[in-house]
Amino acid sequence: MSERDLQRIEVLSKVIGSRMTMVSAAHVLGLSERQVRRLLQRMRTGGAASIRHKAIGQTSNNRLGNVLAYIKEQQDKPKVKSNSEKNGYVKRARGPGRRKEFMSDPAVIARREKALLRQRAAE
């Protein structure tokens, strides 16, 4: 147990033995009278071991190990396909607006070459 717990047990034992009042015990421990009353009730029912903080020995809520493992597991899972993807729809990589990759389109290249040939023939 910590020093704080040992001090609490000592002071609460004095209150139980009528050697100290609840008000003075609250002042010594830096607690309210109501909190001292609650600690006394816990000590009477569970003994001195019940004064120890209940969260000691428990894992912290700020742990990251399990969370990071869960995220990695979710990233490795295959993504769920929507109905349209199951039916063969493939989303195009184009955004809204004018088409920007038209210069590499074979049909456009053929039309440009044909137009250039006509222009040279006209000259």
From TrEMBL:
Highest taxon of source: Bacteria
Record's compositionally biased regions (Basic and acidic residues): 75-84
Disordered: region residues: 75-102
Pfam families xrefs: HTH_29
UniProt name for this protein: ISNCY family transposase
Native source species: Rhizobium rhizoryzae
